[in-house]
């Protein structure tokens, strides 16, 4: 007999391992979808703004269907456990922040115990959820590609720079910083 995997198990498969960070993203997405009365995104109905690049973002992507490729997952490198999700259909938007107090008393827990606690605790103990006004970005556009005069690689015209009167990609234009 074949048992259907739970959404949590599917998130773990997508991410590659189970961890407290993934559990946070799972709870954020689960809470947001429930409170917005939304379902997994098919074609940019939902927009997610994530303020970190931690494990939880994979759960947000998996459960909401928001992805960088579709243009409805926006990454802001603020280093905060904060997520804003909005629905084009319902015009609702929520900002969900992990509460500082959610970690009190968990310092001595193992990774597995902490993850289990995150998955089991009431959402109101884990997350500060606020209804917000959110100006949703326009749906993703498809831009034509142009060739960088320096490296020869194609670059989205909207991201190309002009250097010495010719198209250049951001790295060849000297505007790229690795950041790591």
Task: Spell out the blueprint of helices and strands.
Layout: H1 7-15, H2 20-35, E1 46-50, H3 56-64, E2 73-75, E3 82-87, E4 93-98, H4 111-120, H5 123-126, E5 127-131, E6 145-147, E7 154-156, E8 161-163, E9 166-168
Parallel strand pairs: 1-2
Antiparallel strand pairs: 1-3, 3-4, 4-5, 6-7, 8-9
Helix pairs in contact: 1-3, 2-3, 2-4
Task: Identify the notable features of this structure and list them briefly.
180 residues; alpha+beta; 60s Ribosomal Protein L30, Chain: A; Wheat Germ Agglutinin (Isolectin 2), domain 1; 2 domains; five-stranded mixed beta sheet; two-stranded antiparallel sheet
Strand content: 15-25%
CATH class of the largest domain: Alpha Beta
Q: What is the helical fraction, as a range of percent?
A: 25-40%
**Nearest-angstrom radius of gyration?**
19 Å
Order of helices and strands: HHEHEEEHHEEEEE
State the total count of DSSP E strands.
9
What's the total helix number? 5
Low-confidence runs of at least 5 consecutive residues: none
Main beta-sheet strand count, sense and barrel state: 5 strands, mixed
Would you tell me the structural class of the helices and strands? alpha+beta
Give the rounded overall mean pLDDT: 92
Per the CATH scheme, the topology name of the largest domain is 60s Ribosomal Protein L30, Chain: A
Shape: elongated
**CATH architecture annotation of the largest domain:** 2-Layer Sandwich
Give the distance, in angstroms, between the N- and C-terminal Cα atoms.
48 Å
Number of separate structural domains: 2
Strand order of the largest sheet: 2-1-3-4-5
Assembly type of the chains comes to single chain
């Amino acid at each position: 007999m074949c048992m259907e995997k739970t959404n949590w198990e599917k998130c773990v498969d997508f991410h590659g391992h189970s961890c407290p960070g993934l559990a946070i993203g799972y709870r954020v997405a689960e809470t947001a979808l429930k409170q917005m009365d939304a379902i997994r995104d098919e074609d940019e109905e939902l927009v997610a703004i994530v303020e970190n690049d931690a494990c939880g973002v994979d759960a947000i992507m998996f459960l909401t269907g928001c992805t960088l490729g579709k243009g409805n997952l926006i990454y802001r490198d603020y280093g905060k456990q904060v997520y804003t999700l909005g629905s084009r259909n319902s015009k609702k938007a929520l900002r969900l922040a992990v509460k500082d107090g959610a970690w009190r008393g968990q310092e001595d827990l193992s990774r597995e115990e902490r993850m289990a606690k995150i998955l089991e605790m009431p959402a109101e103990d884990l997350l500060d959820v606020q209804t917000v006004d959110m100006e949703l970005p326009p749906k993703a556009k498809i831009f034509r590609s142009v060739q960088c005069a320096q490296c020869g690689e194609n670059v989205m015209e909207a991201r190309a720079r002009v250097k010495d009167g010719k198209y250049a990609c951001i790295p060849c234009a000297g505007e790229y910083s690795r950041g790591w």
